[in-house]
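BACKBONE GEOMETRY TOKENS
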Amino acid sequence: MEVAVKVFDLEMRGAERSFLSECEALRSIQHRNLIPIITACSIVGTFKALIFEFMSNGNLDTWLRHKGDEEATRCLGLTQRINIVVNIADALDYLHHGCGRPTVHCDLKPSNILLDDDMNALLGDFGIASFYYDFETKWTCSSSSIGIKGTIGYIPPEYGVGGHASTCGDVYSFGIVLLEILTSKRPTDPMFEDGLNIINFVENNFPNQIFQVIDAHLLEECRNSTQGNNLVQENEIYQCLVDLLQLALSCICPLPSERLNMKQVASRMHEIKKHHILGGSTSNNSKGDRSRI
């Protein structure tokens, strides 16, 4: 059996707490889109590691950014990207609403999304996860680890001003990851400066000029699939991309209370996937310039 070994650097601040947090999270949750743990290894004060199933296709980050010869063989198509997003939405829906004790991942990003032999996406790295309980309809922190939770670029704005980690924070991170999957640009890309960020980069072009922001490889696939002036297919692809971007923007509202929850997000992603596979438009209320495809 091939395995992946995650060894904790115990000289780093919070490493032991991160190990315990991940063990606690993974022992009590199980879902087809969460990376399965095989066992944990611990020698007091000297060595701690987790053993996972090996994911042959690496992580999503490497698929969104590749160099040279990899470009021909490691380009994700629209259907693959939709399937990956559905997988992650299902995993977060389970963590927030389906595992008995709501769990906030706190560090959703492409490098923590692993891909198996069949390109199914599995969410990993629960080193800073938090557990919550529902009290009078409010999520309240019951367990946490040290420092600001998450990675720069994916952290929701409320965390930066002292807000507690919450399921709403995971929804925000999901929205950023979805934008990244469609644009192949990290939220920390050097192009984002002087007030420009991945959010307003998309908003400024939505919905009429979305092909200005879509990943070039994905855009090329769209062009190839609409050869022969198939206007119906062109409109379907355009509408699918609009719906995906619209969903992402609904997840990254500045106010947590205005964001969708992951159950709603997962349901919407399954609708988009269903309509895309069947080749039908997902809605009729968004219009824009389709001539740029």
Q: What stands out?
A: DSSP finds nine helices and eight strands in the chain.
